[in-house]
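hiii, so i know i said id send this last week but things got crazy w the move. better late than never?? heres the sequnce for the chain we talked about at the cafe, plus the structure i predicted for it. fair warning i was half asleep when i ran it
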Amino acid sequence: MGNKPFYPPVFLKMKQNETGNYQARSAWEALEYLDRFWPAPRTNEYRRAKAMCRSALDNLVSAESARLYVIAAAERAGILERGWRIGPAQGEIGHRPGVNPATLPASLGV
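okay and structure toks below
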């Protein structure tokens, strides 16, 4: 199973009114977002991005190809971010399900 990193990572919005965003650093993480957190309609672009991520995991296409399809689907849906979005209420850096900001290094300023 291929799991080459996305460079640069893809930053995606979470549901409306949630602080932070999601950073997809690989096809695996992008597929997790597409399956669990995609807040927009599941259009043809969404289905293509999901299929490309699966193909990248099977080493049938490059991670870069999958990344570009995820970006295209996210742009079309209006959920592409250009980097970490700071959550003003909690001062969080982005949103990474399962990660406690208190455990991040102090150098990140959290």
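btw The two ends are 35 Å apart (CA to CA). thought thatd interest u
miss u guys!!
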